[in-house]
Amino acid sequence: MNLTVLGAQWGDEGKGKIVDMLTRHFSMVARYQGGHNAGHTVYVNGAKFILRLIPSGILHPGITCVIGNGVVVDPQALFAEVDELTKNGIDVGNRILVSDKAHLILPYHRDLDLLSEARRGERKIGTTSRGIGPAYEDKIARRGIRVGDLSDPKGLEQNVRDNVTARNRLVQESTMEWKPVLEQLLKHAERLKPMVRDVSVLLTQAMRDGQSIMFEGAQGTLLDIDHGTYPYVTSSNASAGGVATGLGIPPRAIGKVLGVAKAYTTRVGEGPFPTELSGEIGNRLRETGSEYGAVTGRPRRCGWYDAVAIRYAARINGLDGLALTKLDVLDGFERLDICTSYRCAGRALTELPSDIGQLAQCEPVYESMPGWSAPTKGAQTFDQLPEAARKYIARLEEVSGVKAAIVSTGSERDDTIVRNDVLQISEFGFQI
Ligand code: GDP
């Protein structure tokens, strides 16, 4: 049985750790969207790994890691990541495979990213400036350059020349030369060549052979280009729909869907965030939870758990269960608030509004629960949790309409509670 693991909030939910701990039940892990703007942090035996583009399954020997057509690939960033893993003793070998239909991020995309943010001024999106958005823009405008194009140097030359010239026209101060861009690409092409595959064929064959695949999302549902808090979103479909289009597999093949959510909420970059806490509690969540971007180091905005947002993610993705992370960060709080609905212009709202202006005006309606003083950090069974923590989780489940199948109590692999009874793991065909 396949499994999709994706973010149920605004990203940074701790997907890396969850994917890593589940990996041993699968033979492949496949990324279906995003680029090296993701920053999945995984701790194994005290060593810290930040995976940006390569699926988090790479830390397990023998697992094949697939980068789908829905991902945008900066070859330089990919190779830097491969080199870093190799340096740290991870045998990457021939375990990374890249779709021939994946679009490339080129140097001018990075320049355009910076420029378009600067031009937006006050209304900036808060992108990671990695060129992800402009690469997707080129894809939709049908002028993008794909991994498969690297095998045709003549066509590639034409494409690179046209694209660089067009970019220079768009950005008056830009005088980028197309030749060095092409030369660098051709160099990358050599190294990329053994990794390139028709990913749809590869995955279909694997499924026919009875292998199980995990699909790994980047960012989160509320950052999805269609279903997120547009325009403060990422440029791809981070939600479950993206799995099928981003890998070339049928929608029915995505398997069960596990949504990763923190026991509170964070958001990085701009855009509305109804439960944001700007004062002391927000700072405490940020410091205790080390809520700083894995890639950019930017401080994340922090707030209480937002059940409206999770119900939304449950609906959009058809969540079968939650992996509730960072419960330990709430240790020692006297009281914990849970947002169960919004109040907007005097009206009660139980659904996330599509209109960004309306969402910006929404006030959270809170329910308050007692906190706990005994630590949950490192707990591995549900019974080890203080009663107040168990009640808090039970209430989150009730108001979110989805059960917490996994509860994470620390950043290490073993700091995890798996509730096999909750997820009816028998349906998955394995015990976690
Ligand atoms: P991702 O992009 O969704 O993988 O999330 P990030 O890696 O950006 O952020 C998650 C951070 O939280 C990482 O530093 C993880 O090591 C850490 N983390 C994950 N789960 C837990 C947890 O249960 N408790 C604590 N304290 N940290 C966690």
Kindly describe this structure.
- The protein has 432 residues and is of the alpha/beta class.
- It has two domains: 3-92 and 199-431, Adenylosuccinate Synthetase, subunit A, domain 1 (Adenylosuccinate Synthetase, Chain A, domain 1); 103-195, Orthogonal Bundle (Adenylosuccinate Synthetase, subunit A, domain 2).
- The chain is 32% helix and 20% strand.
- It has 13 helices and 20 strands.
- It has helices at residues 15-22, 75-87, 107-120, 132-140, 153-170, 178-192, 199-208, 241-247, 280-288, 307-317, 356-361, 387-400, 420-423; strands at residues 3-7, 28-31, 40-44, 47-51, 64-67, 72-73, 96-99, 103-104, 196-197, 213-216, 256-262, 265-267, 301-303, 305-306, 321-325, 335-344, 347-349, 363-370, 404-408, 416-418.
- A hairpin with a 7-residue loop joins strand 19 (404-408) and strand 20.
- The longest helix is centred in the middle third of the chain and has 18 residues, at 153-170.
- The mean pLDDT is 92.
- The structure holds guanosine-5'-diphosphate.
Total of helices: 13
Question: What kind of sheet is the major sheet?
Answer: 10 strands, mixed
Q: What is the residue-mean pLDDT, rounded to a whole number?
A: 92
Provide the CATH topology of the largest domain.
Adenylosuccinate Synthetase, Chain A, domain 1
Principal-axis shape:
globular
Distance between the termini: 13 Å
CA radius of gyration is 22 Å
The tally of strands reads: 20
- Which residue ranges are poorly predicted, with pLDDT under 50 across at least 5 consecutive positions? none
Helix content: 25-40%
By CATH, the architecture of the largest domain is named 3-Layer(aba) Sandwich
Query: What structural category characterises the helix and strand content?
Result: alpha/beta
Number of domains: 2
Which ligands occur here?
guanosine-5'-diphosphate
CATH superfamily of the largest domain: Adenylosuccinate Synthetase, subunit A, domain 1
**Strand residue content:** 15-25%
